[in-house]
Amino acid sequence: MKFAVTKFAVTSTAVMMLSACGGKAMIESDMTRSVAASPASPWLTLENKGDHVISVGGLSDSAKVQVSPDIASAVEAGLRTSLQPKYFTDLIIGCRGLQQNTAVRTPDGQPSVVTMDLTVNCRIVARGVVVSKVYHVSKTAPVLTDPPRLDTIVPNLITGASAQLADQLWADVVGTGVRR
Questions:
Q1: Which residue, 94, 114, 159, 175, could crosslink 143 as a Cys pair with Cβ 3.0–4.6 Å?
Q2: 47, 96 contact by CB (below 8 A)
Q3: Which pairing describes strands 63-68 and 113-126: parallel, antiparallel, or unpaired?
């Protein structure tokens, strides 16, 4: 009996603590529509799909954002949306090894910002000319720290970082000298 009362007290305390912080240990960020709305581009791929969770550092409490369907699919959708209108025959872009780091920073006397850094290794084949390179992009957005709206900020960061990555990829495609 004493064990049951103690177990109930511990469970009740845990429930109250979770309720006080919003009740969610994981913040959900749905990017399914963006991924579904992007054009099909079999010539552009981003491997290592499956990582769904973005840990956001720099906050008093650790925050985790679950991206649906997954981070790589969301980045790939952004790349397809940006690069599909520029496509030409015999262009292949394959990327892999996507890594991200996301953190909230508060510079001295400045408002807080959240920064997402993406690193990915891509190989471009443009009509036989090959470029292989590691790309680094960084996207920053202002953020209120109480409470941070990470469910909406993270998709904007992914979209913005994907657009920056697409610009860098396209600059290297143009740098090959191959014409459309």
A1: 114
A2: yes
A3: unpaired
Kind of pairing between the strands at 44-46 and 91-105: parallel
| 5 inside domain | no
How far apart (Å, rounded) are the C-alpha atoms in residues 145 and 55? 15
Give pLDDT tens digits for 77-88.
Answer: 999 999 999 999
Q: Can you tell me the distance from the alpha carbon of 35 to that of 55, in angstroms, rounded to the nearest whole number?
A: 21
User: Is 0.90 surpassed by the pTM of this model?
Assistant: no
Q: Per the structure, how many domains does the chain have?
A: 1
Two structure tokens written together for 105: 């920073």
Instruction: Decide if 14 is inside a domain.
Output: no
| Spatial CB neighbours of 128, under 8 Å, sequence gap ≥ 6 | 90
Rounded to whole angstroms, the Cα distance separating 142 from 155 reads 14
Alpha-helix runs per DSSP H in 41-136: 71-83
Cis peptide bond prior to 107, omega within 30° of 0: no
Question: Which among 44, 95, 75, 88 has a CA at the least distance from the CA of 176?
Answer: 88
